[in-house]
Design a protein that fits this description.
7-stranded mixed sheet; 13 helices; binds flavin-adenine dinucleotide; 5-stranded parallel sheet; 22 strands; FAD/NAD(P)-binding domain; alpha+beta
């Protein structure tokens, strides 16, 4: 007999077996001395001063907890039918894992380098401000997900089975707790090893991964994919192409456009990354307390509506670092990551707003790139104003609210450095107004948020794709080109690691249905 029970517990007791059993016992219907139990969910509840962990537990009475492992299995596919995948981000890699699980051979082409080799390029980006356009925080094995924060929660539960993705992550080395924690997180230090394990699995079972291999052209014959070109000169025939190139592969969008494939401008998010001291965020969220061995560094999630525009925090990284995420010279872009322990003294978060393409240009129906051009323009202006290197424009939060220039800054986690720039010089007036109203509202929700010790870094511009590559809702195939499957964040179908991975699995499922 299995019985589900639910109760709050003090954070320091959540791993104490005796205390857990004493909480469970009065809640189960059968009066037994011995039982097994397993956590289903654990979530921090800091709504009142008595901070608790809410536990959901399955109790096994007179039976053992079933062993559902392994969470993932694969077949040897070396001699099987193949599917071509462009991009080794979460969408491409999970599509490949689904393929070898179902007996189909994935052949991946990735423009960037292997995960370890990317490190040198990230070091050059951070320390020297040099952007390698093929190897950076967005491009390379594991995609934008590799050196990310590795937060694995998604709002898109409708799109597919989140648990499958989490279980596959566990199979390749993630901690089992990601299945239980309400806000699962892997951490930048652990992700690269997991990505290497995924690669090893794909290759061991006969799949292929080609690095330094950029899709540079596609050949369409009779409205169907016939061939792709890699690195300008290598041709590969293919009839099914899963395109998972992420939101930063602008060249791929132009390549599709030049080949007559219709694209659509879509709403996207754009804004800034704000950094506070983690200690302050802990105190605000934990009723004056600091985080400790039982209370993780505090997070926040803020959202407000200003003039019918959603302004919200995005990808909040407790104990995190702000990273330079440009993909070419002549632009600056920020994003954030944190190690698994989240033990840096900073708390950063994107504060972004929805930008609707119709607000940018009357031509948004005929020009799919209106949003992309706006995004590009902001990144370029920020680069120019901050010294034409990877420094970013920055302003203290209260200075921003009061239209004052900042003359000095507290230490920032952003390694390339910050330059004092009035943010009204880089963002249009409507965005500045929306930010100001939103920050006031955020301070009401989190008193103390509005402090001059917080620093705004600009811009946070790659949180979602401003362009959609249309696909059929059922077949997930392009309505225009047979065999083309736009997938993941770059197609406009995902917004994060888990949703991209789910979309990769869904697209591969459709391709397999078709070829079988
Ligand atoms: C610093 C940072 C932190 C983040 N933190 C989180 C987080 O904590 N949680 C979360 O859910 N999301 C996070 N994200 C977002 C997340 O990483 C993306 O949503 C996710 O990676 C999208 O997956 P994808 O597979 O669709 O695309 P991507 O991960 O962008 O992968 C696309 C891949 O395609 C390759 N590619 C592009 N063009 C070509 C071409 N022409 N030929 C061959 N290959 C090509 C790229 O090199 C890349 O490897 C973060 C992103 C960044 C940059």
């Amino acid at each position: 007999m299995i019985q589900r029970v639910q109760f709050p517990i003090n954070p320091e007791d959540v791993h104490n077996d005796d205390i857990l059993r004493s909480k469970i016992k009065p809640l189960i219907s059968k009066n037994v001395e011995s039982f097994n139990y397993t956590f289903i969910k654990r979530s921090l509840d800091a709504r009142s001063k008595k901070i608790k962990i809410q536990c959901v537990i399955d109790v096994y009475i007179d039976e053992n907890i079933p062993n559902n492992k392994p969470y993932y299995s694969a077949k040897n596919v070396a001699k099987e039918k193949s599917v071509t995948i462009i991009g080794a981000g979460p969408a491409g890699l999970f599509a490949a894992l689904h393929a070898i699980n179902k007996g189909i051979k994935p052949i991946i082409f990735e423009r960037g380098k292997k995960v370890r080799d990317r490190r040198r390029d990230l070091a050059d980006l951070n320390k020297k401000g040099i952007v390698n356009p093929e190897s950076n925080y967005c491009f390379g094995e594991g995609g934008a997900g590799t050196y990310s924060d590795g937060k694995l929660y998604t709002r898109s539960k409708k799109r597919g089975d989140v648990k499958t993705v989490l279980k596959w992550f566990i199979h390749f080395g993630a901690d089992e707790n990601i299945l239980i924690d309400a806000h699962p997180h892997i951490g930048t230090n652990k992700l690269p090893k997991i990505i290497e394990e995924i690669r090893a699995e794909i290759i061991k079972h006969g799949g292929e991964i080609h690095f330094n291999s950029k899709l540079t052209d596609i050949t369409i014959v009779d409205n169907a994919i016939e061939e792709i070109t890699i690195n300008e000169n290598k041709k590969f025939p293919t009839s099914n192409l899963l395109l998972a190139t992420g939101h930063s592969a602008r060249d791929v969008l132009y390549l599709l456009h030049d080949n007559g494939i219709k694209l659509e401008a879509k709403p996207f998010a754009l804004g800034v990354r704000i950094e506070h001291q983690q200690e302050l965020i802990d105190k605000i969220q934990y009723w004056g307390k600091k985080s400790n061995e039982y209370l993780p560094p505090a997070a926040y999630a803020l959202v407000t509506q200003v003039e019918e525009v959603g302004v919200y925090s995005f990808c909040m990284c407790p104990g995190g670092i702000i990273a330079p995420c440009a993909t070419q010279s002549g632009e600056v872009v920020t994003n954030g990551w944190s190690p698994s322990k989240r033990n840096n003294p900073y708390a950063n978060s994107g504060i972004v707003m929805t930008i609707n393409p119709e607000k940018l240009s009357k031509n948004y129906k005929t020009d799919p790139f209106v949003g992309l051009k706006f995004q590009q323009q902001i990144e370029k202006v920020c680069w120019e104003k901050a010294g034409k290197n990877q420094q970013v424009p920055a302003q203290r939060l209260l200075d921003f609210m009061q239209d004052k220039k900042s003359f000095d800054f507290p230490r920032s986690s952003y390694i390339p450095g910050v330059k004092s720039v009035m943010l009204k010089e880089v963002f249009p007036l409507f965005m500045i107004k929306n930010f100001k109203k939103a920050f006031k509202d955020f301070d009401k929700k989190m008193p103390g948020f509005l402090t001059n010790d917080a620093v705004i870094h600009a811009p946070e511009s790659r949180t979602s794709s401003p362009v959609k590559i249309p696909r059929d809702k059922i077949s997930l195939e392009s309505p225009q080109v047979e065999g083309l499957y736009p997938c993941g964040e770059g197609g406009g179908y995902a917004g994060g690691i888990v949703s991209a991975a789910i979309d990769g699995i869904n697209c591969m499922r459709k391709i397999i249905e078709k070829i079988n």
